[in-house]
Amino acid sequence: MTLPGAYGAPGRLPVVNSIFPPGGGNGHSYLVRLLPFIEKQDAYRGIDLSRHYEDQPSGKWRFVPRVFLCPSDRATSTEKNYYACNYVGISGGGNTGDENGIIVPPDKGAITPAAVIDGLSNTLVITESGSFFRYSDGSESPNRKHATFRTEAQYRLPSEIENFAAECFSDSELSVAPFSIGSEWMEESIGVTRIICIFPKQPRNCNNGGSYVGALFAPNSTHAGGVYCGFGDGSVRMVSEDISEIVWQGVGSRDNGEIISGL
Questions:
Q1: I need a labelling partner for 220 at 20 to 30 A (CA). Which of 158, 206, 226, 251 fits?
Q2: Partners of 16 in the beta sheet?
Q3: Taking every pair of C-alpha atoms in the chain, what is the biggest distance, in angstroms?
Q4: Does 224 fall in a domain?
């Protein structure tokens, strides 16, 4: 298996090092590292990876590769949208903040196939998800069920996970957070292009009183019954929305030694 290298020189194609793309580095998402491999070499050459993505020349990010969009999510298939994506990396499974998955920041080290001791066929790399975002004209995409909301309280985790989930999943009125899953394809952050597998299905996604690191995110889609997921061995499978929490958390981690069944 060969995937984009993490540490290519700015403005040049990265060396293919048989590692998974990192989920960060100067603000750049793992999707940015995939550009040379989806016939976007010219766009990639124009990006200076030594600078934060917000510090790139004006207009650099005013495009979305169609391969980053799910054809069934009509909200993202519009000429007004420059930023959204439907595919997010899996950074871990278990508790909020457990970055023990495959798509992780560079400071976690280069993740090679050999580092995935739970088995490539048992470990998630990406999942599809509906996205919620603001169009280039300032209006919002229509499907608010894909939005991320901000809880009123900020919870200590993992000890207060039940209270956090109770507020997030309740019918209480919460404000929409600035960023949601898939709202900006170039942004590296948890809750934008990366998630931790905690609950496989949620009534809504929430950041933790403003914090995206200790937050609750789950994928969703326009497909009935589940979401399509990419695994470390290159396979793509639909994962049922009724998968157990234990199994969902297990496929999110790369090295916890779980024996996975029930996918």
A1: 158
A2: 4
A3: 49
A4: yes
**Domain with 133 in it:** 67-257
Question: What's the chain's Rg over C-alpha atoms?
Answer: 17
End-to-end Cα spacing for the chain: 23
Q: Is the pLDDT of residue 9 over 80?
A: no
CB crowding 160-174: b at 16 or more within 10 Å, else e = ebeebbebbeeeeeb
For the sheet with 87-93, list strands across it. 194-197, 87-93, 124-128, 226-231, 236-240
Q: What angle do CA 51, 68, 4 make, to 5 degrees?
A: 55
Q: pLDDT tens digit string along 50-109?
A: 888 888 876 677 788 889 988 888 777 656 666 889 999 999 999 888 899 999 999 998
Domain total of the chain: 1
Give residue 57's identity as a one-letter amino acid code.
Answer: P
In a domain, 189, yes or no: yes
Does a structural domain hold residue 88?
A: yes
Q: Quick one: three-class SS letters along the chain? A: CCCECCCCCCCCCCCECCCCCCCCCCCECHHHHHHHHHCCHHHHHCCCCCCCHHHCCCCCCCCCCHHHCCCCCCCCCCCCCCCCCCEEEEEEECCCCCCCCCCCCHHHCCCCHHHCCCCHHHCEEEEECCCCCECCCCCECCCHHHCEEECCCCCCCCCCHHHHHHHHHCCCCCEECCCCCCCCCCECCECCCEEEECCCCCCCEEEECCEEEEEECCCCCCCCCEEEEEECCCCEEEEECCCCHHHHHHHHCCCCCCCCCCC
Instruction: For residue 225, tell me if it sits in a domain.
Output: yes
pTM: 0.88
